[in-house]
Inverse folding.
């Protein structure tokens, strides 16, 4: 357990120091700002599509750090060192998911408040968006780590990551945006998708990291 | 053999090519072996097999369960200070709650004590190699696996490396070194890898 916390601590420190948190949030807010420019300043329309805009922006922002989650560690021999110490790669992946969520989920939820202000969302909608993000972002973080492990070492890993990750994140988007209007049913399905991703991703990522060592 | 390392009839295949086959060796506590051979012959693969990172195509490897690996990559985070980066690994390695003193001692032993507060990315090649060596020294692992440890080291640092290995062996530790540069390890087994005919 203490090894797990040590790993989480290191990844968190790197995410903050490396600026990846700031970039991701800036990108999220930029995407959220782009929509009013594209749709026009119709407040009623913006308030209606705003929740969906935040979800789409969150998905795109989740892509930003993917290249840096596993690739650099595979390259610099850090994963080899974990394996020599007998740490299970699935456990390492679970720690990376936890750290990535901590550096990504809560800051994103804060930034969503700002985005909601820019889009003039009603408070009720914002509350539902925040609830959805709280449930959905762990799944998104798990998917990001699994994708990162799968594409690490590839040339143009960032572009491939988008092609791998976005289709798999569509259920999160559907039920996340759906939970704003759809009520409890969509929230439960969102939680189910998120849980599935969290349960499966460490093993996918672990196997991919193992395979990358051969 | 709990502190040693043994290969039993190990064959290593990479990318469909046989690098070495039927290799057996046994190093006991306090012993050392030095693997030599031309580039591409499988020295690094042999180290990775010993570290458990590569599965041998045939045969098996046994030995001390706790191993320290010094590979080509230093595995230290470039943006963190050297002392902090080493403490991360030391806290994973030891059972004791105080990795700090161990890291300080390892930095002292590798002549890096003055650089503890310098970010790893600013270190020179040789300093980074010595930092990787410091990670091995601080690990307290009985079995050291060193892949080209003398790369990028000046003469004085190679002497330092030899002294550290000797001290580790005197404590009953075991060392497996792969190198193409001359490193003086008294009474070390020589394992010369050759290209299969």
């Amino acid at each position: 357990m203490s090894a797990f916390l040590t790993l989480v601590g290191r990844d968190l420190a790197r995410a903050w120091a490396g600026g990846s948190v700031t970039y991701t949030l800036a990108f999220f807010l930029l995407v959220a700002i782009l929509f009013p420019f594209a749709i026009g300043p119709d407040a009623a329309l913006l308030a209606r599509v705003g929740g969906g805009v935040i979800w789409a922006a969150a998905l795109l922002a989740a892509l930003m750090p993917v290249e840096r989650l596993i690739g650099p560690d595979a390259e610099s021999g850090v994963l080899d060192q974990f394996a020599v110490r007998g740490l299970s790669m699935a456990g390492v992946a679970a720690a990376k998911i936890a750290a990535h969520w901590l550096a990504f989920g809560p800051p994103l939820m804060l930034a969503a408040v700002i985005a909601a202000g820019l889009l003039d969302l009603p408070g009720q909608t914002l509350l539902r968006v925040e609830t959805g993000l709280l449930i959905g972002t762990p799944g998104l973080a798990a998917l990001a780590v699994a994708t990162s492990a799968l594409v690490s070492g590839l040339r143009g890993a960032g572009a491939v990551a988008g092609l791998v990750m976005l289709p798999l994140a569509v259920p999160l988007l559907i039920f996340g945006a759906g939970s704003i209007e759809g009520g409890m049913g969509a929230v439960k399905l969102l939680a189910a998708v998120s849980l599935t991703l969290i349960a499966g991703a460490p093993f996918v990522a672990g196997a991919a990291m193992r395979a990358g060592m051969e | 053999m709990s502190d040693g390392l043994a290969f039993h009839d190990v064959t290593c295949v990479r990318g469909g090519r046989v690098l070495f086959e039927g290799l057996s060796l046994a190093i006991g506590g306090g012993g050392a072996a030095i693997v030599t051979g031309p580039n591409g012959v499988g020295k690094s693969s042999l180290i990775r097999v010993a570290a458990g990172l590569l599965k041998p195509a045939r045969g098996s490897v046994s030995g001390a369960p706790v191993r320290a690996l010094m590979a080509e990559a230093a595995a230290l985070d470039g943006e963190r200070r050297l002392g902090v980066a080493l403490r991360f690994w030391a806290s994973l390695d030891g059972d004791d709650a105080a990795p700090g003193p161990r890291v300080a001692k390892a930095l002292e032993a590798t002549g890096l004590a003055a650089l503890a507060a310098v970010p790893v990315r600013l270190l020179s090649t040789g300093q980074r190699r010595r930092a990787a060596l410091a990670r091995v020294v601080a690990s307290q692992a009985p079995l050291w696996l060193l892949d080209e440890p003398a790369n990028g080291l000046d003469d004085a640092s190679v002497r330092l490396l030899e002294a550290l290995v000797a001290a580790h062996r005197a404590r009953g530790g075991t060392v497996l070194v792969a190198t193409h540069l001359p490193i003086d390890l008294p009474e070390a087994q020589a394992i010369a890898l050759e290209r299969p005919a």
Chain A has one domain: 2-213. Chain A is about 90% helix and 0% strand. The interface with chain B takes residues 2-3, 6, 10, 13-14, 17-18, 75-78, 80-81, 83-87, 213-214 of chain A (CB under 8 Å).
